[in-house]
Amino acid sequence: MTITFSAPAPPVGDAIHHEAAANGNIEAAQRAITTLLSVLDGEADHDKILLRAAAGAGKSYALVRMVEAALGHSNCTRVGVTAFANKQVFPLAGELGKELGASRVCLFVAANRLPEVPQDVLDHVSVATSTTGIPATCAVVLGTSHKMGAWGEAQRFLDHLGPAANADLPYDVLFVDEAWQLPLHRYAMVEGLAPLSVGVGDVGQLPPIDPGQNPWRGDPGYNPYRAWPTAYEDHDGTFTVDLPAVWRPTAAQLPLWRAFYSDWDRLDCVAAPGDRTVELPVLAGAAGAVWASVATGTPTLLEVDGLPDPEAADVDPPLLGVIEELLTPLLENEFTVVRRRYDGVGSPQDEVRISSTAPSGDPLIVVLATRNQAVDDATALVERLTEKYDLPDGVLLTSTVDSWQGQTNAITVAIHPLSGADHLDEFNSAFGRLAVTCTRATHGLLMVARAGLDDLLSEAPARPGTPLGEPGTRSLPRQTHQRILATFSRATLQLGMDIV
Predict the structure, then answer these.
(1) Phi, psi for 203 (deg, rounded to 5)
(2) Do you know which InterPro entries this protein is assigned to (predicted)?
(3) Which candidate, 168, 245, 200, places its Cα nearest to that of 81?
(4) Domain boundaries 272-494, CATH class
């Protein structure tokens, strides 16, 4: 059969790539570093510095640069680094340990979490499970907000380590990685560890607790469950800068990234056209057309018409069955993802080729679903295909969207959060949930949905939406959904037509 795809958004005419794009991030990070050093010099009175990033902007690299710059200043002898989850803290500890040495970097972790620390991290850091175990030589202490902000921890830091250069608090600077995932009430437990906080993160991440509902109705400007930087972005004591380039997407995905971060002055990507490709086996029918579209790097939306009713809008075995039929001919044969490597300033280097017969690095294909029941069904799908084709580890995985944020994969296959919905609500229209779904892939994105998204959005009542301007809802209004869908190459599959 033949599938005719509608044209996606035209290529971005003003986009820059490689060193030109990466240089924007270097300059933005340097502005943040200059401000940080001015605060340490006593020449600026900021108490918050926020480095905002889009997904895949290389923010952890910028954070490491800022930590090194702070420790190079005579008025900074010790810094703390925190985040909401260990899966964020562990890799950052490893990066800092490699740069600064194990004697200067301490991973402060709960004893029951110690077995989860990767060996590559353990090889480059000191480890402490209690405050008294932190070596006196350490200039960097990393731990989750729960660990660093435990009751009485600030005083234990002072008793064991003494004050930092500021003479009052245990740290001179507190760095918060993935800052937009840390709720205000958790940040309040660690804010007092240092006179200056530096938040680095993706503004599109899902917060760990839904920030949409504000129980403090008498004060609409305060909500302890929203991401903490939103409480300070407009304060006089806050310096904010955006990273204007992303390293993760293909050049063809840039219109989608810009649709999510539409209020930014500009957004470019390091990858140029042709830097990321997918080499496919010979495929026929609908599957061949779909994967050929995905392989171009352009976000692809396949709507399926005529399916039996789902169990619920987000629990949809019939739609997952279509995904399984699409994946089958691809997994029966070898496919290869090809990517251009870059140096630290975005200059293109050699090519890396990774075959589905010998995967390495990031997973090749990840199937994303929204709720746990849906991912249970997707897990069964993945297990069937893995067993049937004896797939090596790393070829095909599944996850909930929420659990996969912060992760990267070559090809994403996802069910659109609005698939099967009859209205827009707080869950299916969450900015972060859709943004995470769409921004994990380095090579290709396939979004699958039941037919009718356009009708849903045209008929949905108008509703407010302030995805980057809390307090208030972070749910996307219909116009934003329409703008995002316009960046996809789209097709409809009629039930009864063969997929392969």
Answers:
(1) -70, -10
(2) P-loop_NTPase
(3) 200
(4) alpha beta
User: How high is the mean pLDDT of the chain?
Assistant: 90
Kind of pairing between the strands at 336-342 and 348-355: antiparallel
Q: pLDDT digits over 389-433, tens only?
A: 999 999 999 999 888 988 999 999 999 999 988 888 877 887 788
Given a cut of 50, is residue 472 above it in pLDDT? no
- Beta-bridge mates of residue 126: 106
Q: What are the boundaries of each domain within the chain?
A: 18-246, 272-494
Give residue 229's identity as a one-letter amino acid code.
P
Tell me, yes or no, if the two domains 18-246 and 272-494 fold the same way. yes
Whats the size of the chain, residue-wise? Answer: 500
> What is 238-262 written as a DSSP string?
EEEEE--EESSS-GGGHHHHHHHTT
Euclidean distance between CA atoms 346 and 372, whole angstroms = 38
Q: Which has the closest alpha carbon to 472: 308, 296, 292, 230?
A: 230
The CA distance from 230 to 53, in Å, is 14
- The pLDDT of residue 136 is above 70: yes
CATH topology of domain 18-246: Rossmann fold (3.40.50)
**From CA 231, how far away is CA 234, in angstroms rounded?**
8
Q: Report the predicted TM-score, pTM, of the whole model to 2 decimal places.
A: 0.88
Contact 434, 445 (CB under 8 A): no
| pLDDT tens-place string over residues 24-66 | 999 999 999 999 999 999 999 999 999 999 988 988 889 999 9
Residue type, 117: V
pLDDT of the residue at 499: 60
Report the alpha-carbon distance of residue 382 to residue 377 in Å, rounded: 9
